[in-house]
Write a structure and sequence with these properties.
By secondary structure, this protein is of the alpha+beta class. Helix content is 54%, strand content 16%. It has two domains: 3-113 and 250-337, no CATH class; 132-247, no CATH class. Strands 4-3-7-8-9-6-5 form a seven-stranded antiparallel sheet. Strand 8 and strand 9 form a beta hairpin.
Length: 375
């Protein structure tokens, strides 16, 4: 199953509904976050439980600090006694990583670039653009190249027998089917070839193929050209004019990286504030503050060097904003649950006290002075 194609098709449906691929990415983020709501509740509940149990856990660690094996055993017994799984809070993060990788591969794929790579949104010029790249104009009949560029084919390709098109022709592996013959020299034509063995066709059909038309993407410049390949022996070949690529710096993507860093910093601060214990451990608190500051800085710095598409950054920023709202809402719900349990417990204790209290019957008190006067 091609998950990249499924993701792109779903994103296309969302863009048709909301009017643009930018809004489609935001809608996709909202859908993913809503689907993960139960896991986020479980994560926040786990963090709350961790805060409550922290003093007892620290006591166990201090008591058995000289015997790690016994300490590990006692900690496991403690977790089992309180029905607490310390790894429960990591599950949402583990699930989000494959989603991030899938979206990254989808927005960098030739399928998306040929379909919507040049789509803009707000101040974003191209959703497939990275921070640094080489500028190229699509569909102008030539590629802007460097000597290290690679090329890939779109999934759809038209294959002809004479003037008649073969229907439903597929390549066994579109990502590796296209190859460059010789070296790439900017300013000179680049020779491209597709082996007939890469087509998913019967042997009798392969011998009749005369030409093909395909959408070719320069993986470096993200430039797209529609190329016609002619039969030459056992390959389909094409020679495409080239020009030297000019380096470009996308300031709109830089602004997205900065916004991502700020949104992540805000997310970390709010999560630490909402999950702060009444009597925090100074060492742990200092560590959390350092982590909350360093992680956004480190990730932001990483995105300055790793080519992250603008569409993926848009997804991450939207995800951070939604996470802030989810954290506040879920913590409010958990606090209300805790308060309700506390009141219920107090009511039970009050009822038990009343049940165990002995009823004192009033006794008749005789007036001694009145009796003496009567006598």
């Amino acid at each position: 199953m091609d998950f990249t194609t499924l993701t792109i098709d779903f994103l296309k449906q969302l863009s048709n509904i909301f009017g643009s691929y930018g809004l489609g990415i935001i809608a996709l983020t909202v859908i993913i976050r809503l689907a993960m709501w139960p896991l986020n509740v479980s994560q926040q509940r786990s963090m709350k439980t961790m805060q409550t149990l922290q003093p007892k856990m620290k006591a166990i660690q201090d008591r058995y600090k000289n015997n790690p094996q016994v300490m590990q055993q006692k900690m496991m017994e403690f977790y089992k006694e309180h029905q607490f799984n310390p790894m429960a809070g990591c599950l949402p993060l583990l699930i989000q990583m494959p989603i991030f990788i899938l979206l990254y591969s989808s927005l960098m794929s030739p399928q998306f670039i040929s379909m919507a790579g040049q789509s803009n949104f707000l101040f974003i010029n191209r959703l497939d653009a990275t921070l640094k790249g080489n500028a190229g104009i699509s569909n102008d009949g030539k590629f802007s190249v460097t000597n290290k560029d690679t090329f890939s084919l779109n999934k759809n390709i038209k294959v002809f027998i004479g003037d008649e098109e073969l229907k439903n022709v597929k390549l066994s592996n579109p990502r590796t089917a296209l190859k460059v013959q010789g070296d790439i020299i900017p300013g000179e034509p680049v020779d491209l070839k597709i082996s007939l063995d890469d087509f998913d066709l019967k042997f009798s059909q392969l011998g009749k193929i005369s030409s093909a038309e395909a959408t070719v993407t320069d993986n470096n410049t993200r430039e797209i050209e529609h190329i016609k390949f002619e039969r030459k022996g056992d390959i389909l070949a094409a020679s495409v004019p080239t020009a030297a690529a000019k380096s470009s710096f996308n300031y709109d993507v830089l602004l997205l990286v900065v916004i991502f860093g700020l949104s992540m910093f805000l997310t970390q601060k709010i999560m630490m504030a909402t999950n702060k214990t009444s009597a925090p451990d100074p060492t742990q608190e200092a560590m959390q503050k350092t982590l909350g500051t360093m992680m956004p800085v480190m990730l932001t710095a990483t995105f300055l060097f790793i080519p992250i598409p603008a569409g993926v950054l848009l997804y991450l920023i939207t995800s951070n904003i939604i996470q802030v709202a989810q954290t506040l809402i879920i913590n409010k719900q958990l606090d209300a649950e805790a308060q309700k349990k506390k009141e219920s417990k107090n009511n039970i204790v009050s009822d038990d006290v009343l049940k165990n209290t002995k009823k004192v019957e009033a006794k008749e008190v005789k007036n001694v002075d009145s009796e003496n006067e009567t006598k």
